[in-house]
Amino acid sequence: MEIALEHVAVGCNAISSALSCNRALPASPLPCSEDRDVYCAAFAAKNAVALVTRSPRQQLHVKELLLHRRAVADATRITSVWLHAPSSGSARVLAGDSDGNVWLWTRPDSAATWELTKLSTLLVASSDTTAATAGVSAVSAVETHRRWLYVAAFSDGRVVVMEQERQQPVALLCVVSLGVKHIMEDLACVALRNQESEGEKEEEEEEEDVLVASGGVDCKVHLFEIAAGSREMRSLLALEGHRGWIRAVDFQRRASEDDGNEILLASASQDQRGASAGYEALGDRRSYSISFDALLIGHEDWVTSLLWSREPAGDSVLVSTSMENSVVIWKKSASGSWVPALRVGDLGGNGLLSSVVLPPTATLNGRLELLALNFSGQLERWQQEPLPSKIFHPVASLNGHCSAVTDLSWSPRGDYLLSTSLDQTTRVIAPFHAMNETNPTSWHEISRAQVHGYDINCATFLSATPEGRNDRFVCGADEKILRVFEAPDSVQSLVQAMQGHRRDSGDASTEPRIQHAYLPELSLTNKNADDSDKGVSGGRAVLDDAGHVCVAVGDTLARKTLWPEQRKLYGHGNEILCAASNHQGTLVASACKSREERFATIWLWNTEDWSAAQAPLEGHKSSVVQLAFSPNDEFLVSVSKDRQFCVFQRRADATFELQWRSHRGPRTT
């Protein structure tokens, strides 16, 4: 039997610096054959870094997860990511976490595996005992002729610089302590070109100076210089003007080689404004000419990220993201002023934390593609329509849970998967099988079945579906009740369409019977939507002009694909921990948290009328954490935190009784 990875569904940490584009790629489109193997973005997923590539059908998918394999507290997460992965050559991923660790993954061009280096151990070796007490707020890196420089900012006001000479291990270069009143939220680095003439060039290129920009809670943009051959980071000046915390800074060199060391620096702040300044390094490499270029006003809420990019044609654009739930692309007009050329986003929403421009591909034919991180940790994606149109439309993106996944359950036919999580959502993912194509199967989140107010601990499908009913599942959370949900007709038909099946247009079953649900304000119960609500298809799958299945994205996925709640089951005395359905779909077993024997019971529910099938089953002294029926439904097995498992057998009258109990063993999880 051969096992291969099909799909990774994971959410991004809801932090502005947790999403990074691959800036090692050129502005010109890559051939399709190369683009499939190139990382276009990276993002932090709890304590891992997810590397994103494009599939042959231009769908985004997580190709690799970089793990540091270090035991950490549950609250620890990676806070900042930086990606450099050219189409040919060595790749680097730099990341920092909330425990103060700085991680570096490197992969040579010919290697198949990543090498991991923990850079924060250099601080401990240098007797910097505060290294483990402050989290990492930002990371950045830059390559010069002879070395790599890695820069990390910490939440205690320190900025640490490390260097790596060619074919040498990483070494600590310097530590700058700015103090807790100057915590940096973002970093940017750029190497300065050498200024010597052709006659002055030596056989070996001279090492470059490096400029470092940082912005943070003191509302200033700090500029530093790391001179070639120097082992210190010299402070140049602090630029004032912003009236709120600075959330992002970014450098870009002028496109023309004739511009020498003329560089643009952009900064974004919580004062709802962005600023652009021009820098020029003079001949002696110790003097700089600085001029204010523009003040960008167009957002109505905090500006959370800002980055430079280039259109495939080579023109510079500035991409800003705001908590008003919009992404704005700024371009320079003929008069020389920066104007908002495009604004994309959903009305309402919880705000956007970051956005990147994905590397262009030959398939897109000069069109832009945006990827944005929203406040709930989901990645939203927009794609430009064929040129010369300036309209962007939302397309399927990467989605997944942002906290621990607690349970999984396959649908009765095994054609889609249900997952629950401590992020208080229940999600449905399904495969799309391309018909008469050589493209592989792709997976998509097609429904957000439940968005709850409690952490969701378990869910189970009823293994058999009666005639005339849609799929149903039972779910339990950190509350004392179980909830029963039934799939809307739109989800059932969408799954069939993704499998390549079509319903007969004359079949009465195509008439919508169960609409999608909506969640009222301050409510925990999904209610049946009004027939007049046409947010999504009533009972048919939605197809685009090419006949491809369209899945809900963004806010539509979160609000318009809820499953209606059919029933609440009361009886447990504490928060629900686990649930299981028998193979006939006639019984559901459930259990709750317990520190007392009287609550450590198992309830059996009759799925015909949802009444208790019999008295609760006893046998454990602590919380039951997992339940399972045997294939013939004759036995029910339970495991508990009391380090025992019990086997219950069905009697002639269809009730269950305790048949056997194990001896005390290792702790059961």
UniProtKB/TrEMBL annotation:
Transmembrane segment boundaries: none
Localization of this protein: Cytoplasm; Nucleus
BP GO annotations: tRNA wobble uridine modification
Chief location: cytoplasm
InterPro entries: Elp2, WD40/YVTN_repeat-like_dom_sf, WD40_repeat_dom_sf, WD40_rpt
Start and stop residues of the WD repeats: 296-331, 398-428, 617-649
Alphabetic keyword roster: Cytoplasm, Nucleus, Repeat, tRNA processing, WD repeat
Pathway(s): tRNA modification; 5-methoxycarbonylmethyl-2-thiouridine-tRNA biosynthesis
Annotated Gene Ontology cellular component terms: cytoplasm; elongator holoenzyme complex; nucleus
Family assignment from sequence similarity: Belongs to the WD repeat ELP2 family.
Protein name, entry field: Elongator complex protein 2
Organism: Pythium insidiosum
